[in-house]
Amino acid sequence: MKTIDELVEEGVAGQRVFVRADLNVPLDGDSITDDGRIRAAVPTITKLAEAGAKVIVASHLGRPKGAPDPQFSLAPVAKRLGELLGKDVAFATDTVGDSAKATVASLGDGGVTLLENLRFNAGETAKDDAERGAFADELAALADAYVGDGFGAVHRKHASVYDLPARLPHAAGGLIATEVEVLKKLTEDVQRPYAVVLGGAKVSDKLAVIEHLLEKADRILIGGGMAYTFLKAQGHEVGGSLLQEDQIPAVQGYLKRARERGVEFVLPVDVLAATEFPDLKTKAPAHPTAIPADAIPADLQGLDIGPETHKLYAAKLADAATVFWNGPMGVFEHPDYAEGTKAVAQALLDSPAFTVVGGGDSAAAVRILGFDENAFGHISTGGGASLEYLEGKTLPGLAALED
Questions:
Q1: In angstroms, how far is CA 397 from the centroid of its own chain?
Q2: At residue 367, does pLDDT exceed 90?
Q3: I need a labelling partner for 84 at 20 to 30 A (CA). Which of 175, 179, 224, 227 fits?
Q4: Nearest in space to 114 (alpha carbons), one of 103, 125, 105, 106
Q5: What is the DSSP pairing of strand 194-198 with strand 378-379?
Q6: Is-contact 263 202, C-beta < 8 A?
Q7: Which residues contact 209 (CB under 8 A, 6 or more apart)?
């Protein structure tokens, strides 16, 4: 896999370099609520611009249906990217149309432009190879070289991720190179004890990675909504908590395999519970109650891990040499249910381990809850991509960058 440093050494001055970034940031209207992914893209863009390249940045945002949709426009991202780069970023109001062609043509050496949301063109996500390839051909006509740097999208077989690199000289950006290096430390060259913290709402989203981690990890800590399916699988009452009944047999199977392999599964011993899900808009006080996790009354639902579990999980992470964390411990968007996620983040900071925060909601929580991102070993920009890598899957966007 050629690196961006090698590409720059070969000379990119005056060349049009297409950078597939991941600028899929959360928006509240036109306001960006977390610019972490934009900041992560800056080093690669800066390196190319300083080397004299004409930089064409492209990304998706949200899930538009293959046609322009104003609520998913990248216009606010272009503004923020310009602020972070300290220079104007020209914004093309389409992907491969007249605006894109004119904007790219007007770029000077070291200039930067951002194309409109790639998913406004149905060819980007098409299942049909020919349709996807046709869009990749149009994108390729805009550029002389390709840099893949959107790690959060490399698990997608999309035109700009998978098909476009085959049509241009290509290299991996600094972000992707770093992500792959870090993930190898979680799969190939693991320092032990290796602890994994998994949270989030649905256990079904994590089953494949749990299966793979049973061969790798020494202990697995479970939190978030998915914990209640584990508790139910052990025969405990979970009241009105989030539950995936159909996943109980699979969970029981994993618990059995973990015992056989000597992998320690750690579940909450107490939870914060309430009668209703909290109002995330008004953030009105929810008045939760801390109760034992193995006997949640029928009229209550668990919404965060409790204070005794904070202590337990901190102790289980204290002696780890490697920690991977993916998924919040509760409804961290509400202040009354943020303490569990805060406690896990703090435990990672207090541990001497090499710590990896696995993107998605975990990375967002670190920033929203006010932690110093640089204090962690690595914060991934790709939740889904990180999980699929840990599952042992071949990621199309990485395969496409191989020489």
A1: 15
A2: no
A3: 179
A4: 103
A5: unpaired
A6: no
A7: 198, 326, 387, 390, 391
Tell me, what's the pLDDT at 327? 92
Interacting residues of 210 by C-beta distance below 8 A, sequence separation 6+: 198, 220, 254
Cβ atoms 66, 125 nearer than 8 A: yes
How close are the terminal C-alpha atoms of the chain, in Å? 6
DSSP tag of 331 = -
φ, ψ of residue 355 to 5 degrees: the values are -110, 135
Composition of the chain by helix, strand, coil, percent to 5: 45, 15, 40
Q: Residue 382: what pLDDT?
A: 80
What number of CA atoms fall less than 13 Å from residue 337's CA on the CB side? 31
CA dihedral 303, 324, 77, 159 (to 10 degrees): -110
Eight-class DSSP state of 52: T
- Angstrom CA distances, 170 to 105, 213, 347, 366, 368, stand at 21, 32, 40, 33, 35
The C-alpha angle with vertex 97 and arms to 92 and 101, in degrees rounded to 5, equals 65
Euclidean distance between CA atoms 130 and 126, whole angstroms? 9
- Distance CA(305)–CA(79), nearest Å, equals 39
For residues 317-323, give the mean pLDDT.
Answer: 97
- Any idea which residues carry the catalytic annotation? 37, 202, 360, 384
Residue 240 bridge partners (DSSP): none
Q: What are phi and psi of 54, to 5 degrees?
A: -95, 110
pLDDT-derived band of residue 364, with 50, 70 and 90 as boundaries? confident
Share of the chain above pLDDT 90, in %: 86
335 is written with which tokens? 């202040």
Burial, 44: exposed, middle or buried (Cβ in 10 Å; 0-12, 13-18, 19+)?
buried
User: pLDDT digit string (tens) for 186-243?
Assistant: 988 899 999 999 999 989 988 889 999 999 999 999 999 999 999 999 999 999 999 9
d(CA 85, CA 61): 20
Radius of gyration of the chain (CA): 22
Element (H, E) at 284: none
pLDDT at 322 over 90: yes
Query: From residue 5, how far is each of 48, 122, 151, 373 by CA, in Å?
Result: 9, 33, 17, 25
Q: Give the separation between CA 254 and CA 319, rounded to whole angstroms.
A: 24
Owner of token pair 């539950």:
243
